[in-house]
Design goal:
This protein is of the alpha+beta class and 586 residues long. Helix content is 37%, strand content 24%. Strand 24 (473-482) and strand 25 form a beta hairpin. Helix 1 runs parallel beside helix 4, helix 11 (385-395) packs across helix 12 and helix 14 crosses helix 16. The radius of gyration is 24 Å and the shape is globular.
């Protein structure tokens, strides 16, 4: 054990999980002169919940320089998830990449091609240790089995951390990546907001020798999510034989049931024969012990202070129905690292850097929570879905009628996560419309399909800046803001603005978009064209563009290039996959 008594560090990170190690690794990568200390209360390896990832994490792993190590662990490749959810009631798949196009390739593979669109399903004991040792290999000092007993403070400034050994560790910056414990958050008196409708619990177990429901290519599979009247079950393949199986339900249901956690999980499995069949020959790895945790979505009222930052679950948590927990941990940790790097560099206003981090990441967590509320509302947890969407929109600062709120949330109420395109986690506007159809049973049309003449509406907008994180720098991106709506001057948004300054007729707009996409390889051309029109859709929904219908002119009937290949019934997906296999002679 390395002694750090009476030593000071540039950055002290509390927590050695994915959030803490992401902060440490990126800080050391881009500024090797920074001294980093990671304080971890447990001894790794150790088990942890949260095995299912989203594709955005893979890009961060690559940036950290740890992709090859994670890929070498041979975790299953997550191609998407299979759901029983929504009004239609059939089983449907939401894939990150069309499964019929996913080709067999040797593993370990590089972060390129089709693997840029996939994610991992990980055994956290192995995954977290890989990340911790990687941070250590980059020069971070790691102390395991070290508990922070007290946060020493002077107003809003941390002056040191007293450890269980009695030592006092000091730093110029402190990062709370301690998970839901929120050591710094609690010490600094930061309130935590908890939506009462998402106060759930999770009950789970691990099984050996479980069957994979779906096997695609080398190591490719899907998570299984199956709805029940009082919650939902997950089935996550974590390796060739090991799987995670659990139940999420309201804490009130658990209390009223009078069942033990084990009885509750087994009751749910008995009511979901599809998952039970996968466990027919499986054996619990834990015997009588069943894991439980309160699974309450929450959001801290602020994420930054004088010399401290909250990231990961200490900043907030969104219900796991969207599998966003690990993504929020990695992305918020990356944002902390970039923010510290910029303040250390001294070229940007520290106040702007801190405010940007706080507002951007609180909004990100908040929107994941809202979308989780939307998913639960669509699963009959709320009697009036449209009315519920009105309340969600109201909480976001919009006064909308039920039908308007439904459209805002399902089609464009989350177009702020990326600065260059309308997206939200693994959703773009096209896929969110397909989800809306699954939930409502009503076709969701594109707004731009109603018009054939378009005009920019920038009246009353003021210039401001967003941050674009690349190569260790926060690049200030000009944008326009009107009320709560922001229009970035970059990427597909900027491209559409330039086009609309020259053209108003939809045929001319399409011709210009096609010209801009002329150099795109044929396989990705149609989807790139569609991304331009998703930017137009977001701009219409948020009032940056007005549309007009000229009855003498045709409208544009354009659909996503992948059509229903990303969100479709399981039956349709299976037919497409079988057809592709026959074509390849498999």
């Amino acid at each position: 054990m390395v002694s750090v008594a009476n030593q000071s560090f540039d950055v002290v990170v509390i927590g050695g999980g994915p959030a803490g190690t992401t902060v440490a690794s990126l800080l050391r990568k881009y500024n090797p002169n920074l001294s980093i200390l990671i304080l971890e209360k447990e001894k790794f390896p150790r088990e942890h919940i949260g095995e299912s990832q989203l594709p955005g994490i893979s890009a961060i792993l690559d940036e950290m320089g740890v992709w090859d190590k994670v890929e070498a662990a041979n975790f299953p490749i997550k191609l998407g998830a299979s759901y029983t959810w929504g009004k239609i009631g059939d089983v449907w798949d939401f894939d990150f990449y069309p499964t019929e196009e996913f080709v067999d390739e040797a593993r370990p593979a590089k972060y390129e091609g089709q693997r840029k669109f996939t994610a991992f399903q990980v055994e956290r004991a192995i995954y977290d240790e890989i990340l911790l040792r990687h941070a250590e290999s980059l020069g971070a000092t790691v102390r395991e089995e070290t508990q922070v007993r007290e946060v020493l403070r002077d107003g809003d400034r941390i002056t040191g951390l007293q450890l269980d050994s009695g030592e006092i560790v000091t730093g110029r910056w402190y990062v709370d990546a301690s998970g839901h414990v929120g050591i710094v958050r609690r010490a600094m008196g930061v309130e935590n907001q908890v939506p009462p409708d998402l106060m759930n619990i999770a009950v789970w177990d691990y099984y050996d020798n479980a069957e994979w429901k779906v096997k695609i290519g080398v190591g490719g599979t899907r998570v299984q999510v199956r709805s029940l009247p009082y919650g939902w079950i997950w089935f996550i393949p974590m390796g060739p034989t090991k799987s995670s199986v659990g139940l999420v339900c309201p804490s009130t249901y658990y209390k009223q049931s009078g069942l033990t956690p084990k009885e509750l999980l087994h009751k749910a499995l008995a009511e979901q024969p599809e998952i039970a069949a996968l466990l027919k020959n499986a054996v619990s790895t834990t015997g009588q012990e069943i894991r439980t945790t309160k699974n309450w979505s929450n959001l801290s009222e602020r994420l930054v202070g004088d010399n401290w930052w909250l990231c990961g679950e200490s900043a907030g948590f969104a219900d796991p129905i969207l599998a966003a927990g690990m993504t929020l941990a990695h992305t918020s940790a990356k944002e902390v690292a970039y923010s510290i790097l910029e303040i250390e560099r001294g070229e940007l206003d520290p106040k702007w850097v801190k405010t940007r981090y706080d507002e951007k990441n609180r909004l990100n967590i908040q929107q994941h929570i809202r979308f989780a509320q939307y998913w639960y509302a669509a699963n009959s947890c709320f009697t009036d879905l449209q009315a519920h969407c009105t309340q969600i929109a109201k909480d976001a600062g919009f006064k909308l009628k039920p039908s308007e709120a439904w459209r805002w949330l399902a089609q464009g109420g989350f177009a702020t996560e990326s600065v260059d395109r309308a997206s939200f986690g693994s959703f773009d506007i096209g896929s969110s419309k397909q989800v809306m159809e699954r939930f409502s049973g009503v076709a969701a049309e594109f707004e731009f399909g109603k018009y054939n003449e378009f005009k920019l509406n920038l009246l009353g907008a003021k210039e401001t800046h967003l941050g674009d994180l690349r190569d260790g720098r926060i690049h200030r991106v000009k944008c326009l803001q009107r009320g709560v709506h922001i229009l970035p001057s970059v990427g597909y948004y900027q491209g559409m603005v330039e086009i609309l300054k020259k053209h108003t007729d939809v045929k001319d707009i399409l011709r210009e978009v096609q010209a801009r996409c002329a150099s795109v390889p044929e396989g990705g051309k149609s989807s790139t064209i569609f991304t331009y029109f998703q930017a137009l859709e977001a701009m219409l929904l948020e009032g940056w563009v007005t549309g007009k219908l000229n009855p003498k002119k045709p409208t544009l009937n354009i659909s996503q290039s992948s059509g229903g290949r990303l969100i479709r019934s399981t039956e349709d997906g299976a037919k497409a996959l079988e057809k592709a296999r026959e074509k390849r002679g498999m």
